[in-house]
């Protein structure tokens, strides 16, 4: 199973919510009072948002922190439940 990085899952959730609300990075970064570059890094999972910053981003998106955490939890659960197909080995040549 691949390693789950919470910062990536949170970032994906935030980006999904931002795009779903038709807001630009610039709009959200301004409302959350965080640099556009840093918000972009958070959304891409390269930076981990502090609880204060996450709360500010949620406010800028007009969504409760609990909703972001619920959606992120569902994303993590889906990732954990992905089952890989078994690898088939070729049959030995019949001699």
TrEMBL record:
<dbReference type="InterPro" id="IPR001387">
    <property type="entry name" value="Cro/C1-type_HTH"/>
</dbReference>
<dbReference type="GO" id="GO:0003677">
    <property type="term" value="F:DNA binding"/>
</dbReference>
<protein>
    <submittedName>
        <fullName>XRE family transcriptional regulator</fullName>
    </submittedName>
</protein>
<dbReference type="Pfam" id="PF13560">
    <property type="entry name" value="HTH_31"/>
</dbReference>
<dbReference type="InterPro" id="IPR010982">
    <property type="entry name" value="Lambda_DNA-bd_dom_sf"/>
</dbReference>
<feature type="domain" description="HTH cro/C1-type">
    <location>
        <begin position="14"/>
        <end position="68"/>
    </location>
</feature>
């Amino acid at each position: 199973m691949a390693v789950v990085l919470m910062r990536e899952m949170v970032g994906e959730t935030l980006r999904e919510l931002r795009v779903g609300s038709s807001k630009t990075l610039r709009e959200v970064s301004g409302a959350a009072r965080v640099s556009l570059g840093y918000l972009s890094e958070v959304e891409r999972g390269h930076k981990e948002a502090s609880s204060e910053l996450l709360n500010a981003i949620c406010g800028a998106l007009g969504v409760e922190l609990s909703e972001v955490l619920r959606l992120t939890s569902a994303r993590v659960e889906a990732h954990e439940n992905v089952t890989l197909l078994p690898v088939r080995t070729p049959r030995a040549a019949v001699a």
